[in-house]
Amino acid sequence: MPAKIIDGKAFAATVRAQVAEHVTKLKDAHGITPGLAVVLVGEDPASQVYVRSKGKQTVEVGMKSVEHKLDAETSEADLLKVIDDLNNDPEIHGILVQLPLPKHLDEDLVINSIAPEKDVDGFHISNVGLLGTGQKSMVPCTPLGCLMMLRDHHGSLSGLDAVVIGRSNIVGKPMAQLLLGDSCTVTIAHSRTKDLADVVRRADIVVAAVGRPEMVPGDWIKPGATVIDVGINRLDAPEKGDGKTKLVGDVHYESCAAVAGAITPVPGGVGPMTIACLLANTVTACCRANGLPEPEGLTA
Ligand SMILES: Nc1nc(=O)c2c([nH]1)NC[C@@H]1CN(c3ccc(C(=O)N[C@@H](CCC(=O)O)C(=O)O)cc3)C=[N+]21
Ligand SMILES: [Mg+2]
């Protein structure tokens, strides 16, 4: 039986609708508009496209969107000043500094200068520690989106074998924490893992987040397993015409879809859920800042 395709694009639309509903409530009952600030340093074209689509979706759900575009040579002190102003701005509930930053900036220092309660990426060391100890935190958007899709598909994740391929602070490690929180048996695999194929073959849930195009073949997948593909890799696609490109994930879609029970496509899987969860985190942060009840089902 071919895999069920988990439609992240459609799922993200339902998450945004829930966010929009909560935003309306905050405005009508309390006169509060959640605000999200995105800080982009440098002119990377891919980042600019991505930041624009975040800004557009932020406005569509009724929130305030602020963009700070700083040039590539911005000093660390100037960037920290922008962040400090946003930390102290009562109309801003969420702050995202687009990564990666230009080399001369200390990424850890910059991220840890964001007020933890406004850190809608969930990358601040306080949020990492809170998540790791099962306390209320801001949860990184990509793993949160993956968790929502997994819970929706499986109901309970309790007791399932999960293998996360990739150990980044942005996806792999927080994903493992969330799966552990839902009582999975979790393995984090990476480029040095011995017998990766055999490790992956045990998994009921495979989350691929390595950034290597199509590296997971179908014969690594246990029949019926759920495959969550976090990779977004742009490759040349001469077969589509001169200079054309295509997006592929970290799993080889055709062969994995033939054995998996369910799979997320690229594009239209994890990517749209990441942005939807950014909006969800911003509403959550706004509610916490104002001592109001949080939206249900939009946090871990
Ligand atoms: N502080 C920070 N937080 C981030 O969350 C963050 C970041 N920096 N830097 C860059 C990456 C990248 N990222 C994406 C999110 C959604 C799509 C997305 O929606 N992709 C569409 C396809 C878009 C296309 O066609 O290119 C999809 O998968 O269907 C892509 C990429 C968030 N990032
Ligand atoms: Mg890494």
From TrEMBL:
HAMAP family: THF_DHG_CYH. Catalyzes the oxidation of 5,10-methylenetetrahydrofolate to 5,10-methenyltetrahydrofolate and then the hydrolysis of 5,10-methenyltetrahydrofolate to 10-formyltetrahydrofolate. This is Bifunctional protein FolD. Belongs to the tetrahydrofolate dehydrogenase/cyclohydrolase family. Pathway: One-carbon metabolism; tetrahydrofolate interconversion. Residues 6-121 form the Tetrahydrofolate dehydrogenase/cyclohydrolase catalytic domain. Keywords: Amino-acid biosynthesis, Histidine biosynthesis, Hydrolase, Methionine biosynthesis, Multifunctional enzyme, NADP, One-carbon metabolism, Oxidoreductase, Purine biosynthesis. Its EC number is 1.5.1.5, 3.5.4.9. It catalyses: (6R)-5,10-methylene-5,6,7,8-tetrahydrofolate + NADP(+) = (6R)-5,10-methenyltetrahydrofolate + NADPH; (6R)-5,10-methenyltetrahydrofolate + H2O = (6R)-10-formyltetrahydrofolate + H(+). NADP(+) binds at residues 166-168, 232. Residues 140-288 form the Tetrahydrofolate dehydrogenase/cyclohydrolase NAD(P)-binding domain. Transmembrane segments: none annotated. GO terms for molecular function: methenyltetrahydrofolate cyclohydrolase activity; methylenetetrahydrofolate dehydrogenase (NADP+) activity. PANTHER family: C-1-TETRAHYDROFOLATE SYNTHASE, CYTOPLASMIC, C-1-TETRAHYDROFOLATE SYNTHASE, CYTOPLASMIC-RELATED. Homodimer. It holds the Pfam family THF_DHG_CYH_C.
